[in-house]
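Q: Predict the bound structure with iron/sulfur cluster.
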Amino acid sequence: MVRCRLCGRAATVRLRYANLSLCKEHFIKFFERRVLRSINRYGMFRRGDRVAVAVSGGKDSVVLLQVLYDLSERIGIEVVGLTIDLGIAGYSNAYLEVAKRHYERLSIPYRVIRLRDYGFTVDELVGIRRNVCSACGVIKRYLLNRAAREEGADVLATGHSMDDFLSVLLQAYIRGDLETLAKLSPKLPKADGLVARVKPLVETPERDVLAYALLRELEYVEEECPYAKGATSVEYKMILNSLEDRHPGIKFQMLRAFMSRIQPALKTEKKGFLRRCEECGEPSSRNVCQFCRLRKLVTGEAGKHLSSNPVSGM
Ligand code: SF4
Ligand code: ZN
Ligand code: ZN
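A: Predicted complex:
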């Protein structure tokens, strides 16, 4: 029997990258301490911050919500939830319901943002945009930033794990996309119209997130988005995991090398000049922001200063 290194009871989780076996209780503590360390290392929150947590209903965001809720008193933050209904048939509703159940269980105020209130859905982008996921990413960033700002949040926290971070890193590297690499960071400061963004799970491998969700018996939606199959990010994660299986710890090494050596060297990479979108007034690097261009692709119409949808549960 493999024993927990800390208490000698039967081990539940084996972390090959750290050559460490832990029982349920010690894994949960280990996991939470590591998230807290990431929060402190990157100065993600200040006492008194109102933190908007983006919750899809998938395991990563559900775990993030739970951990930030548990830490909230200790680190002096106030947590509010944001969930987007992307309008993906047979998928969005299940996610929405799970997110709502968590908000209600923890008595966290929340807001649901419906893309169809802006005149279109992700389903309607199919056939119009070849890469639905990249369009969806634009939509999520836009709606989350806007809602977080409107809710008076100081920081927007997302459930991106180490694997998400490294998959973006690899893709950007292969494309030679220096702008994405320069902006790829566990913490992006506040800018004109943009709420500060943080990724508290950046030093947490996705497999550990899954183990934590299971051990704490957190409800999450397992079903994948119908558009995820063709997503290159899924393939990159598989490549990263097969590397990790052969070289335990290599993902941590990649993250550390990027943050300590590569990222600082990219700081001078020219950033897009931030102005305001002519259609909606949100921050944009061009005259019309990417969100409004997507909306016009589907609806064929401009939407001058669209107001956002009403608050629910807030
Ligand atoms: Fe959006 Fe793609 Fe994720 Fe589906 S898999 S939610 S389309 S980014
Ligand atoms: Zn133990
Ligand atoms: Zn716009």
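A: The chain has a mean pLDDT of 92.
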